[in-house]
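Morning. Coffee machine broken again, so started the prediction first thing and wrote up yesterday's gels while waiting. Chain of 129 residues, entered below exactly as on the submission form.
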Amino acid sequence: MNQELLENIGGVVAILGSLFLLLGSLGITRMPDTYNRIQAGTKSSTLGSILSLSGLFFFYPDWAGKLVIMVLFVLITNPVSSHVLARAAYHIGVPLSKLTIIDKLKDSELVKSGRSAHLKKVKTNEKGE
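Came back before lunch.
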């Protein structure tokens, strides 16, 4: 392929990555609570970084190995770190938005501890009471 065409493709892909990063920063300012902000930032920064690194590949094809390692690093560390931050925020008591309808983590913790009304009813029925 023509080198100029490859550079144009790389530029477009890198600009798309930059747009995802911009939209992620807008999402961080617009979301109502910490958990939604973490999600908006993580998803957009992961995709934006991957697209930006992919755009670099078209400019510097001999960096392919390094860029693949960087993409894998971003794919592994961004979701894991945001998950850990969100769980830590939840466990220290950072409140959910008033718009939040479902709290699956709270429900799963109730099931594990046996404090759910449904589980108490099932346990009493098994005992024959």
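The helical segments are 3-30, 34-59, 64-91, 104-113, 117-127. Going to sketch it on the whiteboard this afternoon.
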